[in-house]
Amino acid sequence: MMQRLKTLAVMSLASTALAACTSLDQDAQPSANTGPAVQSASSAPDEGATRPAFFVDWTERAIDSRWYISNHDMKNGPWESDWRSKNVVALPNGLNLKMTPKAPVNGTWPWAGAEIQYRQRLGFGEYQMIVRAAEGSGLTSGFFTYTGPYYGTETNEIDVKFVGKSPNEVHFNAHSGNLNAGVMKYPLDFDTSKNFALYSFIWAPDRITWYVNGEFAHEVTADNFNIPQEPSILFANVYQARNKELVGEPNFQDGATASYRCMSYRPLEDTSSRTCADVYDSYITGE
Predict the structure, then answer these.
(1) Could you tell me which of 63, 268, 78, 252 has the C-alpha nearest to residue 161?
(2) Which of 73, 172, 222, 253 shows its CA 20 to 30 Å from the CA of 110?
(3) Other CB atoms within 10 A of residue 183 CB
(4) What integer best gives the mean pLDDT of the chain?
(5) Do 208 and 227 contact (CB within 8 A), yes or no?
């Protein structure tokens, strides 16, 4: 049923398990003055490009070379935490991005979060993740596509985010240049920090449509918003945010974790590649 719902949505828009805990650490990377944590290398944008589909079962494999792990301090942006690669932890039940305390040296933050980036740029298509959000006021977790001035483009972003002070909602938004579509706070009948769920969006040239557990949640169209067109980088992260009005005052535990069981992407014209919706039932129950 889940797959039928998602396939219909795409067609309407486009016509080894780890033996033990493994902590991943990499050399520190330089900080960027603007935008999300940056990759060590990035090719020039290829306008309108799509990449081959991918499907990752984080309950069966560790992170591989397709992904970049952020590991540096962040003195600017919407964060009040730095990035540490040790906070990206692979476990048999999924990929975990966690918060840990640190000494605030030379203006750095007293907390470190975690972030991964898919190294290839992705374009129009269907993006899905099965995730349980981090628990605690002051935290933001989720996934999004992004490109911006650091990469030689205008800011383009599509968001699925969770804020710790409001565990019974998910936030959707999109950014294009200096404009944003406006945060849509979508109410849920479950606690996002206690339950895994399937979150997805379909990015087409003329619209962006978000779903929760395969059900329509929100949409913006070219009729009232400049839909991003640039291929972008896929991120997943957890961090302490500066916007206290939105996310709440910091009140979370050491080790607060956003857990991901599945991530997938397929271009619009692809209606057969495997997605997280295909394994939705087993990933939610953990069986």
Answers:
(1) 78
(2) 172
(3) 13
(4) 84
(5) yes
